[in-house]
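Here's what a typical entry looks like (Zinc finger, FYVE domain containing 9b):
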Amino acid sequence: MTPRGPPKATTNVGSTCKACDAPGHPPTLATPSQLEEGSCTVTAVSPWSESRSTLVLSPAEAAWAEEEEQETKDETPPCGSSKEDSVVEEKEVEESGLDGFDSPSTLSKEEACRVGARDFQSQSEMTTSEREDGTNGNKLQAANRGEAPEVCSAPGVDPDNESQMSPTGMLAKDQGAVLGEVAPLWVPDSEAQVCMKCGTKFTFTKRRHHCRACGKVFCALCSSLKFRLTHLDGKEGRVCVSCHSTLIKSTKADGWMTLFSTGTPPKSQRKVWFADETLASQQSESAPTTPARGPALSPVRRTDRPWSHSDSANLIPLEGLPPILTSTGVKGDYTVEERPSEALLFQELESGRPKPLVFVLNANLLAMVKLVNYVNRKCWCLTTKGMHAMGQVEVVVLLQCLPEEKSFPKDIFSHFLQLYRDTLTGKVVKHLSLFLFGSQFLGSRDHAGFLYVRSTLQSLQGLPLPNQPYLFGLLIHRAEVAWAKAFPLRLMLRLGAEYRFYPCPLYNVRFRKPLYGEIGHTIMRLLVDFRNYRYTLPTVSGLTVDLEAQRTCIKIPTNGYNELLKAISKSNEHVLALGACFNETADSHLICVQTEDRQYQTQAISIHNQPRKVTGSCFFILSSALKPSAGYLAKSSIVEDGLMVQVTVETMGEIRRSLREMKDYSITCGRLDQSESQELVCLQWVEEKCTVNKGVFSPIDGKSMESISSSKMFQKSEYKENGKIIRWTEVFFLQRSQNPRRGASDSAENSRLTERIARAFCLALCPHLKLLKEDGMAKLGLRVTLDCQEVGFVAGSNGQLLPAQYFSALDSVLTPVIHSKGRTRDDEPTVMELIFYILENIS
């Protein structure tokens, strides 16, 4: 190998990319902050001395299509989170029948039942009139016989039978045989905002259920029973307690109780809890048909409940769309449409709806959907809202629309929900992490998964994005999975070259051809186990390789020292290979293209119309294979999309020693007798500019958390009360000791103290979780200061301190915990901020 000036080339390489047939728009200079389609150039890598013409993929800098309608200032969300962060206010409605009495505590169960029936009689009048034709004959027969309607207080009458307490329920004895034999007319969802039995207001956590016998709408509690119905061919169907009672009496009268009535007797070990804090199967073995309801069950803490599957944990139906959340026009007030029309929603999106549609995937997770014009492409834009509360980043998927597409990409909803479930086990997505699908996805088995990436230099104009942090999902082909696992940066940059985006596109194209085939002959076979992935190329966070004319600089961040030591200790004695990160300050980057004959070629992708001054590399290899008799000081060359430097054994020892001591080291490459063509390779330690938590703000006072390190928390225990959960998700270290002499014992002690503070905070607010969430304070912050001169805390939400009543509850619990650790003058001050979220209990 001969030394060359960077960017270097191994052979004469031709670009395999074709020029795009773009419209003849004059090229404009792309700025790093907003790069669009056609913003990159792919060149064959050659020595700087050789003149080669660049291969422009697409010079198109087409002007944006019509911009999305800008929201007015009054619609701009404030710094704090709105009540939409809580998804939907769950407001408990007192039983309407109790409002008109002076002494509601003295009402009996039967009296409350009668009052509730009268209050909702008006809502059932339409349904009653629709069914009058079917029951008119029976009513006339009853009238001719002179039968009087039964009253609820009469002995032997079921007080829960609503059909006996209203004109609708004044049925003849013969109607019990008709009930359940003919399919009823269903009351439309839009006409039933509350349960027609108990008056509970419907939300997406308190769902509507139609009785299969009478067709009216009830909550889960009032329609928790089942009965074999004739119009269902003898199969069991959900019925309300009133119809169940009527059907039971009818079968008893005809002697058919044994044949048809199942009543769904409870299993002693099974308990099913619903969102309205009722236990559906807690019934007496002797009376299996009587539901547990009303004042008989008081709200209990959910911490001791056995796990059970709730329908509110997954609201995605097998067919159709999930429920949709719509605003009523009143700030913070929303309604839920459970079975939205896909055709109408698609038509609404195509007509230019300015705001995204909001789908409810479960009680804690929303999906925002909008059709956008992104870089002259019509795309679906799907984003999550609710992942932050689980310690997960929000997710954005841009999907290019298919020709004549009229249906929603519903598989994305299931993927979002799976990400949510994975977070419960501590599995989170990060930059360049891979999520694989188990089966067919978006209409093809070739769609293998999503590679998640951060947006860097790409344009984000016109996209409805969630709050930071968030990641974009790149749809990968099944043939590309090996590279996505072993070396995702190579695949990301290769996508950028294919779609003329620097460094990579953010949108996805379905049914595309793979960019890589069989692994074949590549240097990565020496560095990565492609069979079992027992070892891969180690990467140091923030490490970059800058290739310039006659100089190459390998920049190692000082905060990556421990990662580097780990890589050195695991590396071969004669070879040190490290993966690099994408360099945002570079104007171009090496990429690796696989040709049709499975050969790998080196090319460079760069920002269009900008001169190439600094070229990034994906990895570097230091090898001690150079012999002193070769006549070289050292040799450097480009290998695929990385840099290889060959040195002598003695030089390798010096390099390893310098890295362990955190000292810079320079390698002179070239022949001993040709000093004018020599170049320099520098290993340089740098103070990396921390870019973590960009766009993140404190819920206490709106303080920016950018460049402040933090740790995610995935605790196994949860703190639950009144149907709500409070979860500790993250801790920010605003100020902490940087003394390296402090041992691991000090760190462990601080961790234990932090956990105790978090636990005390959760327990202190448990009785107030419901009220806090209803007031829009679902995200809470606790800032603790530990200093020899000052020890204290502040707590807040939505950019403001918590009200006084919450502070008094916190003060009595937190103060003893914070003061439990003694402070000395030698202790450095510590300031940390803990983040908590209040969620719905859906498990």
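Residues 1-33, 46-177, 255-310 have pLDDT under 50 and may be disordered.

More examples are in the samples folder.
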